[in-house]
Amino acid sequence: GRLNADNARFLLLAVLIVLYMLCGAAVFSAIELPTEREAKERWEERLENFTRRHNLSRAELRHFLREYEEASVAGIRVDDIRPRWDFTGAFYFVGTVVSTIGFGMTTPATVGGKIFLIFYGLIGCAGTILFFNLFLERLITVIAYIMKSCHERQLRRKGVLPHNGRRGSGTSEVDSLAGWKPSVYYVMLILCVASLIISCCASAMYTPIEGWSYFDSLYFCFVAFSTIGFGDLVSSQNIRYESQGLYRFGNFVFILMGVCCIYSLFNVISIVIKQSINWILKKLACKCCHRCQRRLFRSRRNVVMPGNVRSRRNISIETDVVNESDTDGRRLSGEMISMKDFLASNKVSLAIMQKQLSETANGYPRQMSSNSKQNGFSGGVGALAIMNNRLAETSVDR
């Protein structure tokens, strides 16, 4: 049952991503295609005028432009820029590699460099992702601590929580406070505000120093912090800057903080998306369950029905699955079933009970409050699992 629910969630997410990509492609094509056609027409006109003015053939000029494109890949530009492969340039390059930004302005041109990049990036990207996950863990711990402190202060103002004791008073509010967890929506809002503040501060630095507009600076911040890294705008590429050392240090700090915050925000948004998918699947499962029940009742009109039939309307997508076997049909209709059928129909619940008893006997039961399930902080893989577990299990004891 759990596997079927995971497969259904995976298929629905894949369909939604494909639809999201199709909609995005349609919007970007409608916005950018006319501008591309206009730019191509202007370029063809300039190319024609240049060949007439200098008495050059179109083939020779195109061959020259291709050679310049090859030189541009190697780091040669028309304007004076700093060397790409001095130590500072190489350090900036490895920073874009291990952070998975990959602007594309600097790329290895030799075979040895490309081979070294494969092994270097394999270890570097894995280590940086581990750093981001650990940063995410500690960030959620700090947010949970602050939000719980604010929640306790509100309870004291209302007179619900005593000033001297938090846990030993025996009140229901104190007991509920011990298992209180922050909402994923509050965490998402805090991360959104933090990311916006960092982006605005970084844009205020990039606008006068790099000569970009403020909107272009915000655009660069999102592309860099989200590790998309188009490479159309790249910071710290000129030879000289005013207060060059201070600017490069500030650029490094802003990119590091921005990547960490946006990475954490993406994981929180993924939890919200997971909750939405679970809600959709639950609605679909409820509709299918009602239809199956109506069919079963119609097919068993001659069966003597008991006065009170238990309905299974509260089926959870996370734990249960709608069974369409004959055993479930007999259980819904109120007929007697054998012990074998009973064990077969309840094997998931028995397995969970057996696991809980085993963990309790060994002395390390995993505590999971009902609030965490209601908030959706369960399950996940990789960084999503770290986010889920931290939000579900973080409680601050003071």
Automatic annotation (TrEMBL):
Q: Which GO terms describe its biological process?
A: stabilization of membrane potential
List locations, semicolon-separated.
Cell membrane
An example Gene Ontology cellular component term from the record? plasma membrane
Name residues in a coiled coil: 33-60
Gene from which this protein is expressed: Kcnk13
Instruction: Name the source's superkingdom.
Output: Eukaryota
Mainly resides where?
membrane
Q: One GO MF term, please? A: potassium ion leak channel activity
Reaction equation(s) it catalyzes: K(+)(in) = K(+)(out)
Family that this chain belongs to: Belongs to the two pore domain potassium channel (TC 1.A.1.8) family.
Bilayer topology reads: Multi-pass membrane protein
Q: Which UniProt keywords apply?
A: Cell membrane, Coiled coil, Ion channel, Ion transport, Membrane, Metal-binding, Potassium, Potassium channel, Potassium transport, Transmembrane, Transmembrane helix, Transport, Voltage-gated channel
Name under which the protein is recorded = KCNKD protein
Q: Which residues cross the membrane?
A: 12-33, 90-111, 117-147, 184-206, 212-234, 246-266
Query: Potassium channel domain: which residues?
Result: 77-139, 189-274
